[in-house]
Specification:
The chain has 21 helices and 25 strands. By secondary structure, the chain is of the alpha+beta class.
């Protein structure tokens, strides 16, 4: 049962984004146009304020019927099979409150706006106002979501849908982004947004056309509950009598188990022999294990093993790029990954975050609003070069990128020239045309990690933005304290992820050139005096940006915003500048440092001319940094020294008890300074395995304390 007042309260939470999610922007415009000439009327028993199963509203010659879930289950007498403009028009009119004035005003208002007793009301003899005000709408919606149990969600989506929702969240590489305003919203990494404005599980609004919408509704509820400390139990596994595993599945599981055991032995053998005494046979075993891992669809482990094989190959040929300490760090991380896969298999679930994906997957979304923030050309040491364009999505509140890349051996592709060549999306002339403009993409494809596909089926509509409108849309960071927070090293993400941000510095130190690292440095300061050092390593692709930064006016013009890609290194913020957003209204709203000239006239750079004249090679990889061990606790430095020394010379020629005692003493010293994660080593464990485990724990603690282990992958 529902009342007119209940429905009005629910519809009042709908904003334009919610209406567009349930219908589309064109229907919303037509509905508002209809309301200029039509006057909807509540008909039926609801007009008298009675409790009814549904509220009926006449819109012209059509009648719209709203149930308890609001627009989600609304029906109209018009022939449209989907949400129509009459439903939207009736909902907007009801949300305006006019229906309450026309139908049972006193009763309706009392149910929506309960009156407070007057100071001299006998019901409040002390004449005091109620100290507890009415709950916020978002709080009420939050309480509703948190109150739904397994039975409620299973009744809504079925057992299969409830199971799918659990697996969908468990397999996701990142949790949904939650927002709280007039209503609650959950945005999944693939771009699907689910909004809750009231009305029970059926009232959850999904903004994309997805199969089995109930599954996404339940997944959104579970995500909200998990984020607030409530984890509902997973559904029971399907009965094996009804669904026996296939022969291929059984074979794969057995092969995976053998691979995990063989890989554990292989990694421990490398430490037992000593990373300074490796042989071609070990390289061949790593290559074979990598192929095996790819065959059983352990994609992440396959990449790690291939990287280890490359490390060993460099050491065997005595390459200048070989690094036995980096190899040892990667061995420890691979050993931890295999242990995590073992634990997941024993629990009956192997999350995609650990297993990995063969390639990135892209999901089609209906529309996507973007703001272009510039682009950057790049080249990697592995032989690829390309162009990356950066966008801010106001509706999804996240940074997105589009990249076009090629092997650098492939002729005819120039990352800098690509900036002014045709874009992949019809409607956008070039990637350069997106800088400082607002784009509306129709049917874009988006990956979970925020990458846009360049498929031609996506179309773009471009609208100009003035400087004030652009700045109002951007997520400006004024304090560096919360930019790129330090997180534990993850087995699913091998390195600390970089973050695209828009910085609003209060000042900047002069630009400087590091001749040793062949890198330009530009420190930006916030109000607290904290610094983020933007770096541009020398490359012919970066020559333009280096010249631009060298010629920047000092001090920095107040109000200038800087778009950069920022991460933490040794606990400090470093980044790569992409573009400037100047405060002047008479200048382009986005100044792309890698491509634009401030006044349209090229300015020669003495630094760039000297580097080109000297024939300095491009810097494709950052100069490797060693751990700043002076900033770390002495027992931690001692443990790393112990495990490196033991692993380099090998464990096989040393009594096992001696190694265990040395590790135990080092762990005891670390617990004494508060690092209780270093528990007593297993007295019966494999010595090489104990060394690798100690090193992995050391990597984690070093990272959190500000050092940066040389981990890749």
């Amino acid at each position: 049962m529902t009342t007119l007042a209940d429905l009005v309260a629910l519809l009042a939470r709908y904003d334009d984004d919610a209406w567009v999610a349930i219908a589309n922007r064109g229907l919303l415009r037509r509905a508002r146009k209809d309301l200029e000439t039509l006057h909807p009327v509540v008909v039926g028993p609801a007009a008298a304020g009675e409790d009814v199963d549904a509220v009926e509203v006449a819109v012209g010659d059509r009648v719209v019927r709203f149930g308890a879930t609001g627009p989600a289950d609304a029906a109209c007498t018009c022939p449209s099979p989907v949400t129509c403009q009459h439903v939207v028009a009736a909902g907007i009119w009801l949300a305006g409150g006019g229906a309450l004035d026309e139908a049972a005003p006193a009763a309706a208002r009392s149910s929506v706006e309960p009156s407070s007793p007057a100071p001299d009301d006998p019901g409040d003899p002390a004449g005091r106002a109620d100290p507890v005000g009415p709950a916020e709408p978002a709080d009420l919606l939050h309480d509703e979501l948190m109150a739904w149990d397994t039975a409620t969600l299973t009744a809504h989506a079925g057992l299969a849908g409830y199971r799918w929702a659990h697996h969908h969240l468990d397999d996701a590489e990142a949790p949904p982004v939650l927002t709280r305003g007039p209503y609650l919203a959950m945005t999944f990494p693939q771009g699907v947004t689910v909004r809750y404005l009231g009305g029970g599980p059926g009232g959850l609004v999904v903004d994309q056309r997805v199969p089995a919408v109930e599954r996404y509704q339940v997944a959104a509820v579970l995500a909200w509950q998990r984020a607030h400390g409530l984890v509902l139990p997973p559904p029971p596994a399907p009965r094996t009598a009804d669904r026996l595993p296939t022969e291929a599945a059984v074979s794969q599981q057995e092969s995976r188990a053998r691979l995990r055991a063989a890989t554990t032995t292989l990694l421990r053998d490398a430490v037992a022999v000593g990373v300074s005494h490796l042989s071609p046979a070990l390289h061949d075993r790593l290559v074979t294990a990598g192929v095996w891992a790819q065959g059983v669809e352990y994609h992440r482990l396959a990449r790690v093993l291939r990287r280890l094989a490359d490390h060993v190959d460099l050491l065997l040929v005595r390459s200048a790029h070989a690094d036995d300490v980096a190899l040892l760090d990667d061995l420890a991380r691979a050993h931890a990954l295999v242990g995590a896969l073992d634990a997941a298999a024993a629990a009956g679930s192997e999350p995609v975050g650990l297993v990995g994906r063969a390639r990135s997957t892209y999901d089609v979304t209906r529309t996507l609003d973007l703001v272009g923030l510039g682009g950057v050309p790049w080249r990697t040491g592995s032989g690829y070069h390309g162009l990356t364009s950066v966008f801010w999505s106001p509706s999804r509140a996240r940074m997105l990128t589009w990249t076009d890349a090629r092997p650098d051996t492939l002729g005819g592709f120039d990352p800098r020239a690509r900036w002014r060549q045709p874009s992949p999306w019809p409607g956008l002339p070039t990637p350069a045309a997106a800088a400082g403009a607002r784009l509306t993409l129709t049917h874009p494809q988006l990956s979970a990690d925020g990458r846009l596909s360049g498929v031609e089926s996506c179309t773009a509509a471009v609208a100009p933005l003035d400087a004030a409108s652009l700045r109002a849309l951007l997520p400006v960071a004024t304090s560096w304290q919360d930019v790129a927070p330090v997180r534990p090293l993850s087995l699913t993400h091998p390195a600390e992820p970089a973050t695209w941000v828009v910085l609003a510095p209060t000042g900047a130190a002069p630009v400087s050139w590091d001749a040793t690292a062949q890198t330009l440095h530009w420190p930006l300061l916030d109000a607290a005096g904290d610094a983020v050092v933007l770096e541009v390593p020398w490359s012919r692709l970066h020559a333009h940006a280096i010249g631009r930064l060298e010629g920047l006016a000092q001090p920095l013009v107040p109000g200038t915003l800087v778009v950069a890609r920022v991460r933490r290194r040794h606990g400090e913020l470093v980044g790569e500048p992409v573009s400037l957003v100047p405060p002047d209204a008479d200048r382009p709203s986005v100044d792309c440092l890698h491509f634009d000239e401030p006044d349209g006239t090229p300015r020669p750079s003495a630094l760039v001319r000297s580097l080109l004249a000297a024939g300095v090679d491009d810097t494709t990889d950052p100069v490797p940094d060693r751990h700043r061990r002076g900033a770390l606790p002495a027992p931690l430095v001692a443990l790393r020294s112990l495990v490196e020394r033991q692993a380099q010379r090998g464990c096989s020629g040393v009594p096992s008890d001696d190694v265990r005692r040395a590790l135990g003493a080092a762990h005891t010293a670390l617990r004494a300074v508060g690092l209780t994660v270093f528990v007593e080593p297993d007295p019966h464990g494999d010595v090489a395995g104990l060394v690798l485990r100690s090193l992995y724990l050391t990597q984690q603690v070093e990272h959190l304390l500000g050092a940066e282990p040389s981990i890749g992958g």
